Amino acid sequence: MVRRDKSNYIIQSVAHALDVLEEFHGEVDELGVTELSKKLKLHKNNVFRVLATLQSRSYIEQNKSNDSYRLGIKCLELGQTFIRQRGLLQQANPVLHELAEKTGETSYLSMLRGNEVVYLDAVETTSTVRVVSRVGLHMPLHSTAAGKALVAHESEEELRGRFTAGPLTKFTKATLATADAFIADLALVRERGWAADLEEFEEGLRCVAAPIRDYTRKVVGSLSVSGPENRLSDEKIQKVIGPEVVAAAQGLSNKLGFHE
Question: Looking at the domain 80-255, which fold is it?
Fold first, then answer.
């Protein structure tokens, strides 16, 4: 029996649907029918039909205010399933519980998407004053400890490539507002092993994070701890929170097959 090349089995309409989904990458949040038509060199009617099909299954949703399209909740669900099946979420959950118990603060698992941090899971502190859960949120990497931990080991060229649109958005007076300041801060992250957000995204909130690596040595996520400024003093961060977060991230990395 002669085996046929798998390319002979490709269904063009399915390929077009995947092409549409893959256009939503990096910092591209929304796209219109005309823009997609030009990018994919497909007739607008074909693009509209593909979008309508994807929208009916919640892989795409439409922004009613401008008629543009963006990724739907089903994409997030698939992504979370993939991560869970690969072991990150499953392996991280008990680590998050232990980290929250040891530090007395809310712990998070996050990953990088473009220039944003996506929070995948969290275990809240039992303290009466606690941080509002960030699970499911997308936040800028330059003003979060998790973001710093996720990109700290990238080359300077890669880092500068992330910030070509000009000054970085300032959220508080402590936010790092230039690529130079951000890159300088990452040198300190590499030196001590953990990243800090000292009220750089939200006043009164401090966070500490460390990178998670897998068996390929690639950074695949970060563990972080967040709490109010009055509980996370500089001394506590340096002597307690930082070392605990690093130890937790290293332990999780080892479970994912990473070894020094």
Answer: Beta-Lactamase (3.30.450)
